[in-house]
Write a structure and sequence with these properties.
With about 650 residues, this protein is of the alpha+beta class. It has helices spanning about 5-35, 35-60, 70-115, 135-145, 145-150, 160-180, 225-240, 260-265, 270-275, 285-300, 345-440, 450-480, 490-510, 525-545, 605-620, and strands spanning about 120-125, 130-135, 180-190, 195-205, 210-220, 245-250, 255-260, 305-310, 315-330, 335-345, 485-490, 515, 520-525, 550-555, 565-575, 620-630, 630-640.
């Protein structure tokens, strides 16, 4: 089939081409302008117009169906297509230029935002109520907060110290009224609680009606400056309060600084000294020394502890020790010098006196040496006499050794005598005590009251005599170092309860109250000797207490590096008490203190002496007594919880 293009076909083809080109241009503008809906509608309209012309063109080309052309309609469509294409061609550069400008503005905004967020200073904006509406990353980093913790949530006053809160409360209304504040020093509280010192300047952004819309603030971190100012203040205070004279001068010897110490040392006030030359302080014969000092300073070296002379305001000369140091600027160039002067006049005078005393002492030493040489000759003459005396002493020593041997023999005889006598005395006493107890308890038949009282007297006297014999024997054994220590493992509580049982009847008969404050604790020591000591304390307490109470208490002292664990046992009574002057006599043998109950309370004066010996020499402990005359006494023994183990006992 042969196709021939008629003018109508060419018209349709031209319309389709123009509409397709316009659609392509519209599609491009979709990506440029971002207005997808509008341009999609335009592209759809153009495509529908193209389809409308493609269909008749196809019919003309194929010839399947007759097509009656409407030339006027096609020309109008062509004109519309051309107009749309020309319009798109004209507005496309405008949209492209707009897109370029928007990209540049977006880039500029990003750069400004980056500059705002990462500026070396802090920026923030506050609304009319002082609440954050904007804050940059630098200030957030200083404060340690996240942006969403601050913006819209916190007020600027929430971050201020109490003192700065008051300053801000006074300044913020003035800022809104005047429109600007500058160089306001405030203290902010970081999230971690530390303080940030800042310098704040702010301006106000106004609404159309002239009211405050927001404030914009610039914040500078002045923490380092504050620290430097504090350091300079401290250094200045140190210089001013120093007793040493501290002076600063330039290289031409002009005085630039003059502290209180300099006023005291040289007599010139700061007003009199500043601006004058230091030569006024230097004796004429030492001008050359001053030049040498400055030459050393110019070379960058220090002059340390130079002993020299200076002149005070009244003309008095004083001895001083100088330390001169160069002062450099930031580039290391020497511009000034510091002079530290200390008055050593007294030290120099003292040194002269010491030197004079030293010479005098050397003369005395020489004189003494001559005297010693003379004495040496006398000693040599007396040496023979001393040797004779030594021979006499050796002879006397032999005689003393012989006497000591006889004493040891007598001591052994005494021990044998006590041992034999203890048996000879205890046997009849035990019989007397036993039979009198049987008779008193009416085991052999009834007896009258007078007989009971007489038997009770016999029983009491027998027991007293037996206790006396036992005490004498124990004392003798302890002093001879022959007492036997029997170690046992037992509970302190059980021992103290046993001791209480021995005195319960006596306590009850006297109408006294017995209070117990006992603890369970394992001990390893001589149980019988500890029980004997506690019983002695309790018996004395009952004996010398007429009313009130007796308290038996125990406590534990934990082990320490320098001593083992110990237990303390105390007996507290409300009896007659002991005078302070008599306490040191209390533990001597055969001593009975004067008291209203002396005739009523029998005793030998050996009980406390024996108890002290048992506690210190056998149980490796200590004994103490505190008392108030007429109010009662407290006896306390302290022993190690484990005897004969590594440690220092309870005497430390």
């Amino acid at each position: 089939m042969t196709f021939s293009l008629s003018p109508l076909m060419l018209l349709l083809l031209l319309s389709i081409a123009i509409q397709a080109a316009a659609a392509i241009m519209a599609i491009r503008l979709i990506g440029i302008t971002g207005r997808r809906v509008a341009w999609c509608l335009i592209v759809t309209a153009l495509l529908l117009m193209s389809v409308r012309r493609i269909i008749p063109l196809y019919r003309l080309l194929v010839g399947e169906q007759p097509y009656t052309p409407d030339l006027l309609n096609e020309l109008i469509g062509l004109a519309l297509s051309c107009a749309m294409a020309i319009g798109l061609a004209l507005i496309a550069p405008l949209f492209l230029e707009r897109k370029r400008v928007e990209d540049e503005l977006r880039l500029t905004a990003d750069e400004m935002r980056d500059l705002y967020d990462h500026a070396p200073c802090g920026y923030h904006s506050l609304d009319d109520d002082g609440r954050f509406v904007r804050i940059n990353a630098t200030e957030l980093q200083w404060l340690g907060y996240q942006r969403d913790e601050v913006v819209g949530r916190m007020r600027f006053a929430d971050l201020l110290t109490p003192r700065s809160t008051q300053v801000f409360a006074d300044t913020f209304p003035r800022l809104k009224q005047e429109g600007r504040v500058k160089d306001l020093e405030l203290e902010l509280v970081r999230k971690n609680g530390t303080i940030l010192s800042v310098l704040l300047s702010a301006s106000v952004v106004l609404n159309r009606d002239g009211s405050c819309l927001m404030s914009r603030s610039t914040v500078f971190d002045i923490s380092d400056r504050k620290k430097n100012e504090e350091a300079e203040h401290v250094l200045s205070s140190i210089v001013e309060s120093s007793d040493d004279a501290i002076i600063a001068k330039d290289l031409q010897q002009t005085i630039l600084a003059w502290n209180k110490g300099a006023e005291l040392l040289y007599g010139y006030t700061a007003e009199e000294a500043l601006g004058r030359s230091v030569i006024m302080l230097v004796p004429p014969e030492r001008y050359g020394e001053l030049n040498d000092i400055m030459a050393t300073i110019r070379s960058g070296e220090r002059v340390e502890h130079l002993v020299t002379e200076r002149i005070r305001k009244g003309g008095e000369r004083i001895s001083v020790s100088l330390t001169v140091s160069p002062i450099r600027d930031a580039d290391g160039e020497i511009l000034r010098a510091s002079v530290v002067s200390r008055n050593i006049t007294e030290e120099m005078q003292l040194a002269a006196q010491l030197k004079q005393q030293q010479l005098h002492q050397e003369e005395l030493v020489q004189q003494r040496t001559m005297e010693l040489m003379e004495r040496s000759r006398e000693l040599q003459e007396n040496q023979q006499a001393l040797m004779n005396i030594v021979d006499d002493l050796n002879q006397k020593t032999e005689e003393l050794e012989q006497a000591n041997a006889k004493l040891q023999e007598l001591d052994q005889l005494k021990s044998l005598f006590i041992a034999s006598m203890s048996h000879e005395l205890r046997t009849p006493l035990n019989s007397i005590i036993g039979f009198s107890s049987i008779l008193k308890d009416e085991w052999l038949g009834p007896i009258n009251q007078e007989q009971k009282e007489n038997l009770a007297t016999i029983l009491r006297s027998g027991r007293h005599l037996l206790n006396l014999i036992n005490d004498v024997i124990d004392v003798s054994k302890i002093e001879a170092g022959r007492i036997e220590v029997r170690l046992e493992e037992f509970d302190l509580y059980d021992l103290l309860k046993e001791a209480v049982q021995y005195v319960e009847n006596d306590v009850r008969e006297k109408g006294l109250r017995l209070e117990l404050q006992l603890q369970h604790h394992a001990l390893r020591t001589d149980r019988r000797r500890l029980l004997q000591s506690v019983l002695n304390f309790l018996s004395n307490a009952v004996k010398f207490t007429e009313r009130g109470c007796i308290t038996l208490a125990s406590s534990i002292e934990a082990a320490r590096p320098e001593r083992p664990g110990c237990v303390a046992i105390s007996v507290v009574d409300t009896g007659i008490g002991i005078a302070e002057a008599d306490i040191e006599r209390l533990f001597r043998p055969f001593v009975r203190l004067e008291s209203p109950l002396k005739t009523l309370a029998p005793g030998t004066g050996l009980g406390l002496y024996l108890t002290k010996k048992l506690i210190e020499d056998v149980l490796d402990g200590t004994i103490t007594c505190t008392s108030t005359h007429g109010a009662g006494s407290t006896f306390t023994l302290t022993i190690p919880e484990r005897l004969n183990e590594k440690g220092t006992g309870c005497r430390g």
